[in-house]
Specification:
Layout: H1 2-24, H2 28-45, H3 47-55, E1 62-63, E2 66-72, E3 77-79, H4 103-113, E4 116-124, E5 131-140, E6 146-153
Antiparallel strand pairs: 1-2, 2-3, 2-6, 4-5, 5-6
Amino acid sequence: MKKMNIVLAILVSLCFSMNAWAVQSATKEECVIKSHEAAALITSKGLAAAISEISDPKGNFVWKDTYVFLMNLDGKMLAHPMQPELTQLPHCLLITDPTDKAIFVSFVNTARSAGQGWVEYMWPKPGKKSPSKKITYIYRVPGKDLFVAAGIYVGGMMY
């Protein structure tokens, strides 16, 4: 009977752990909502305030296991809460994923042509070296040569 209780306790614990894990993963819908919120922030408070807020790794635009970043249509990263070093580059257009996809070129092209959409690519999860499949929602800020974006890793959490 004792063994049965231990097994049952382990199974219950695993179920709660799996539910907690599921709650921690951002959804595609949240990426869309947060991107639109970031665009509204740019429109209402201005670019400088938005850069400051989007850049904050403990701010409103970092949630669950993902974040919003901000770029211009020239491929310059203006705000990135997880990899602020990207903002120091003149542009990100030469960065490719392991499949040689120019991911930031794809982001810019999506923002320029469609104004919004999803881009699929490979990118390492924070703290990891090996890349994982990721999809990112791109949303051009209305009336601006800027876009905001947020993505999720396919098949698992970021952290």
